[in-house]
Amino acid sequence: MPLLWLTLIVLAIAGAGYVLGRSRALASAGGDSRHLHSLPSYYGANVALKSVVPAIGVMILWLLLQPLYVGSQVSGTIPDSAVAEGSSRSLVMAEVRRTADGLKNAVALGEMTTEFATDPDADLAEVTQSLKDAGQIVTADVTQDILRGAQKYRAMNATGYFVMSGLVILIALAGVFFGLRETQKEFRARNVVEAGLKAILIGAASIAILTTVGIVLSLVFNTLEFFRLYPFMDFFFGTKWAPSFSGRGGASDLGILPLLWGTFYISIVALTVAVPIGLFAAIYLSEYASPRLRAVAKPLLEVLAGIPTIVYGLFALLTVGPLLVKFFGDDGLGWMQSGTAVMTAGLVMGVMLIPFVSSLSDDIINAVPQAMRDGSYGLGATQSETIRQVVLPAALPGIVGAILLAASRAIGETMIVVLGAGAAARLSMNPFDAMTTVTAKIVSQLTGDADFASPEALVAFALGMTLFVLTLGLNVLALYIVRKYREQYE
Amino acid sequence: MNDMRILERKVAANDIKISASNTQVYYGDNHAIKDVSIEIEDKTVTAFIGPSGCGKSTFLRCLNRMNDTIDICRVEGDILLDGEDIYDKRVDPVQLRAKVGMVFQKPNPFPKSIYDNIAYGPRIHGLANSKADLDVIVEKSLRRGAIWDEVKDRLHAPGTGLSGGQQQRLCIARAVATEPEVLLMDEPCSALDPIATAQVEELIDELRVSYSVVIVTHSMQQAARVSQKTAFFHLGNLVEYGDTGQIFTNPKDPRTESYITGRIG
User: Fold this and answer.
1) Does the model's ipTM exceed the 0.85 cut?
2) Who among B71, B101, B106 is closest to A379 (CB)?
3) Which domain holds residue A99?
4) CA dihedral (A312, A314, A319, A325) positive or negative
5) CA A372 from chain center: how many Å?
6) Residues A394, A398, A402, A407: what is their CA dihedral angle, to the nearest 10 degrees?
7) What are phi and psi of A37, to 5 degrees?
8) CB-CB under 8 Å, A385 with B106
């Protein structure tokens, strides 16, 4: 809550700065805005920006750094004797933090007086009991060291926040003062505000990029950690996937090949369904359909893209699977053991990808200049000759790009596989066997209560990294092809 | 313009190739062509001139039913090619367009090789029995398009890589390759520089020997240079049609005179 208040105070200061800056600028021009370099509102915005940006910036920086500083200070005061055998200093610090939060909340709820919460010699049993009464989480009895630590932690944080609030408000006021001082009619407020806006936009863009970098880095480090525990030759070239969880003991086989094979097999089935249907639908919609039909049919087709994949998964599990078993199961051809199979997941995933392929291809076919078609019709070509020999070749690179994008979606799909293809990792040519994919196995390795430092859990990051590299490669290839196509009609 | 030269070029009357009578064209509610009747002669260059939006391109596109590809366009009246109504239900517009070729305002080579651009028409109409036949047709067409010498060494380079003037001559060669009887040209030189324009005009004059050529142009000098007959369109009406020399030296209608002397347009 104090943070919200602090932010509001800073914003109020900036708002006042805006009004003051605006009127000061007008006054410096004798009340006639035509004598100003910029519009009056730019002078106001200049003052407001100069107060908000540094103040909020300092606040964010402080909030990031303070826990680190306070943590290390408090950690230094805890004697080694307080760290129990088999435990670690970071676990004790977690306890300290939890106790500190508990004390704060207990005081806020009125279960504890401020004096009692800050009393270093308070009775430990009494503290524990009153924390429990206040509904706070207490895992073990609070020890003397932990209580001392927690109290120091609280005190330092309180001082920190107090100093921060003062500093931030001071900076905001200084910003207003500084902004007002430079406000006079020759000052180029517009240029300053434009530069400030540009900086804000750059900041937003870099947050997006830095987040991506952060995600990739966390993948990379965890993957490296995994390869320290598990030989990477066995991971990339192992043909057996049999993780054993710590409870059962024994070594795990973590070969990626069965998973990659399942991924590719299901994706190939899906693309075999989606590409012809999607492409033909796109050709019909863009070349043959009347505008009225197109206006209805295209959004309808795109509705397919809006269905959550879990719903497709249900469709696979409850409708497509049993239907396939009826024809290919023991009562029919006898190729299929159960409803969950590569075919089930592949068919349903194909249906999911149809709008993807058709919508993108439709746009690309429409982008082929009408002059190409006119030229072909002018030579006496029929509509289908024109499409086959002029329109499609011209659109082909773009269509290939669309298909590659669809492929990278198929590779990354999870829910349909979990529900439609089963969970057995298997190297088999029979499309009616149950198989599983990389993504489905990532889910199953990380759900459950496996130790997060074990290779069985860390393998998920290696799988994720492999998948990331694969889909990134496909996307880059697709973008490259699409861009090359664009150059053709300059 | 050299009036003497125009008068000298007066040609003997030829057979009628295309005869349109009482043609009306509507784009939705917009009446674009009003009651146009015209007789276009064989082995003659006929120029359509007139200010922008007067309907000359629309009328040109009626002659090979290119307007069929526009949904809201409606054509009434009779247009006869060699005495046959081209808007008759039994006529296949695809076959008609093989007989009445068209060259467009902007060069529009297909994104294929130069060779495949020319071979496209002969292939779809089955004009060649063998690869050798096709080679002969391609060479002959490129020569008639006056572009053979420039591209003979790079027949398999993409047609889109040529310069604007070369592309337009490629498109003319492509239209010639299907052996049409009539060649329609919709402002074929508007995107070209003066040198390329001169080359295309020379080409048009040569094509006259075998085809009936109809050309829409904004340049009155061009109409005077290349055509034997000229039709002046204004606001969807055919105002005046006659020998080019007569239209440019002695127009009968005051509107024609105003246009060619630059007072309306």
Assistant:
1) no
2) B101
3) 3-229
4) positive
5) 42
6) 100
7) -70, -40
8) no
